[in-house]
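Hi P.,

Sorry for the delay on this. The queue was packed all week, but I finally got your sequence through. Input first:
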Amino acid sequence: MKAAPSNPNRLRLIKLIHVARRDLQMDEDTYRLMLAGMKGLDGATSTADLSVPKLEKVLEQLKAKGFKVRPKGKGKRPQAADPQSKKIRSLWLTLRDHGAISDSSEEALVKFVHGMTGVEALQWLSAEQASQVIENLKKWSARAEREDK
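Then the structure:
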């Protein structure tokens, strides 16, 4: 088979398909068997042989197997930098140091705050909500510190 014609979306789709394959931990043989078994691909076993509509079919198949497309860093909101948010982050890391939490990432902190306040970003907390989070983290930190001794 000869290579499909060039298209600006083609390269992006091919890259996304290979990211999906890696995320799904699909080995080379399994991936090629999946391609060969797909209807409408005419037995192709490589993305180099596929047109954009066929690449989109492959991507849909990988999504059906559990792959989720995640946007690059674009759209990711910056960390809140106000004093209360910094205090919340500091207390969160203190809890990590005491062994009270295993995931000290910003995402885990945001999930914790969301569970407590219903707010999905530190920068969206009202002063009252931020104070509530700080007080809860202080109490948790004090308990964790007592357990360390």
